[in-house]
Design brief:
The chain contains four helices and five strands. With 139 residues, the protein is α+β, with helices and mostly antiparallel strands. It has a five-stranded antiparallel beta sheet with strand order 2-3-1-4-5. The radius of gyration is 18 Å and the shape is globular.
């Protein structure tokens, strides 16, 4: 068996230490929504998304980022993004629905063609497909 790397040993030691602290809560799941701000034009939609995720999951951390892609002309395009991140324990079906609806409402309000959402795995989907799927989403 290959020897584990030093980084993995440190990570395990840190996790073990944190789990021994009295009153610590360990969140095994994390949600991140990458919400373009439309250069400020849809800041209210981002704020509503943040509030709804915070209500559903008990809080969130929001930070600035930049989303970039290469357009049809081969040019790099970038725009300001707010990353709305929240840790949680496995979601109940009703909480999962609340979060999904909040993301869908943001996409509609901000007129986003694509969504980037990370829930353990990183997902990018068209907003239209997301909204269609949400109509069929049953828990």
């Amino acid at each position: 068996m290959a020897e584990r790397g030093e980084a993995e040993q440190v990570k395990d030691a840190l996790r073990e230490w944190l789990e021994t602290i009295r009153g610590v809560t360990c969140y095994r799941d994390r949600l991140r929504v990458y919400a373009p701000t439309c250069y400020g034009a849809c800041a209210d939609a981002v704020e509503r998304l943040t509030k709804r995720i915070s209500e559903a999951l008990g809080g969130a951390t929001v930070y600035d980022a930049e989303g970039c892609w290469v357009n049809e002309k081969g040019e790099l395009e970038c725009e300001p993004v707010k990353v709305v991140e929240s840790a949680h324990h496995c979601l109940s079906p009703s909480k999962a629905r609340e979060v999904a609806e909040a993301i869908g409402d943001y996409a509609r309000e901000a007129d986003q063609r694509y969504l980037a959402v990370e829930e353990g795995t990183f997902f990018i989907t068209s907003s239209e497909e997301f909204m269609e799927s949400l109509k069929k989403f049953r828990m």
